[in-house]
Write a structure and sequence with these properties.
alpha+beta, 4-stranded antiparallel beta sheet, 6 helices, 4 strands, disordered N terminus
C-alpha cells in the first residue's frame, strides 16, 4: 500500500498532445491559486506570481508544435544571457558620461548577440536530442516525446519540486499517471 503522506519527487502524465496541453493549463491554474500557506510558508506569494508568469509564457498550448514552438520557448528560457530591460540606473542618472553610455550600449549589443547565438545553439543542437524543460524557482518540468516509430505521438510531462509541500499540493489536485 502506497503512503500518500509524502508524494514522490516527480509526478508524470503521458498521453497525446491534447492531454499535455490540458495538464499545462491545470498546472497554470494551480500556480495562480497556490499560496504560501499551502506550502508551509516556504515559498512567498511574490515567488508564486513570478513562477506563474514564467509558466504561462513557456507552457504547451494546443497550437504549439513540440519540435518548433516548444523548442524555441525552451531555448529562450534556458539562455543565460538574459537582457536587462527598462530604464534602471542609466535613465535615472542622466549625468553619466558619454563614454559610460557608449560602453553600456556596446555591452547590450554584445549580450543580445550572445543570447541570440545561445538560443540558436540550444534550439538547433542541444534540444534536438534532449527533452524540453522548464526550470522555475520552485518547480521544474520536463516535456518529452516518445520517438519510437511504432507508437503514435505520445508525450510525457513530468513535474519535479524539491519542496515536499508543493509536490503534495500538486499531487492531490491533479490526476497523475504514477499515483
Amino acid at each position: 500500500m502506497k503512503d500518500d503522506s509524502m508524494p514522490e519527487l516527480s509526478l508524470s502524465r503521458e498521453g497525446p498532445w491534447e492531454d499535455v496541453v490540458e495538464l499545462s493549463e491545470d498546472i497554470g491554474s494551480l500556480l495562480r491559486s497556490v499560496g504560501p500557506e499551502d506550502v508551509n510558508g516556504q515559498i512567498s506569494k511574490e515567488e508564486f506570481e513570478a513562477l506563474s508568469k514564467e509558466w504561462e509564457k513557456w507552457r504547451p498550448r494546443a497550437e504549439d508544435d513540440f519540435s518548433e514552438e516548444m523548442r524555441e520557448k525552451t531555448a529562450k528560457k534556458a539562455s543565460i544571457g538574459k537582457i536587462r530591460t527598462g530604464g534602471g540606473e542609466g535613465a535615472k542618472n542622466t549625468g553619466k558620461s558619454m563614454a559610460r553610455a557608449a560602453k553600456d550600449s556596446l555591452d547590450r549589443k554584445v549580450r543580445r548577440g550572445v543570447q541570440s547565438l545561445e538560443e540558436k545553439i540550444y534550439e538547433n543542437i542541444i534540444l534536438k536530442a534532449n527533452s524540453l524543460y522548464f526550470d522555475g524557482s520552485a518547480l521544474d518540468v520536463v516535456l518529452s516525446k516518445n520517438w519510437r516509430s511504432n507508437s503514435s505521438d505520445k508525450y510525457r510531462l513530468t513535474l519535479h519540486s524539491d519542496n515536499p509541500h508543493l509536490r503534495k499540493f500538486f499531487a492531490n489536485r491533479i490526476d497523475w499517471d504514477d499515483r
